[in-house]
Amino acid sequence: MTKKQADAERGPRLDAGAVVRAALELLDESGLDALSTRAVADRLGVRMNTVLWHVKTKARLLELMADAVVGQAPLDRLPDAWDDRARELVRRYRRALLARRDGAALVTGTYPAEPHTLRFAEALVGALLDGGMAEREAAWTMWALVYFTLGLAQEEQSAAARPRDGGLDRAVSADTHPALHRTLAHLGAESFDARFEFGLDAILTRG
């Protein structure tokens, strides 16, 4: 590619934001496993090197995509009470993850110190500090909330693809796994909304 061709492809019609938007469209259509810089380039009608010029590496592209997903969690019109504010922030975070195909898996695999992610973290940690938590407690509670939400959202998004063959029912027996057998009816529950609210409450009201 000549410099003139490269400059044309890097012109006003294409920037990092356009690359991320195209990548998110591909994510929704085909899932995270099918996402590649070549596929993004094909969608945009440019060379793969042009995509990499804007985002440098696939890992960097995934970071920018993850930040865009988190950016879909609005930070306005939040409750005044710190605990209600924290709950609402985490609910919005979960909705943002679920709004994109494989959104939770995408965000789980990245650690972007990017504007949307930092703004969300600032709002959540700020709510926890307003509740009287010490600095370490606020930081670790934020991580507990984020990791719990990511894990449950990832399970929810993958549930549709899993066969419902009763494997857990066959593997757990009253003789070998008495405790698991007693709770078996709840272990396979797919009431993700209720499980999310239970975990959210457990983390924020512990002790």
TrEMBL record:
It comes from the Bacteria. Residues 13-73 form the HTH tetR-type domain. Residues 36-55 bind DNA. Pfam families: TetR_C_1 (PF02909), TetR_N (PF00440). Keywords: DNA-binding, Repressor, Transcription, Transcription regulation. PROSITE patterns: HTH_TETR_2. InterPro entries: Homeodomain-like_sf (IPR009057), HTH_TetR (IPR001647), Repressor_TetR_C (IPR004111), Tet_transcr_reg_TetR (IPR003012), Tet_transcr_reg_TetR-rel_C_sf (IPR036271). This is TetR/AcrR family transcriptional regulator C-terminal domain-containing protein.
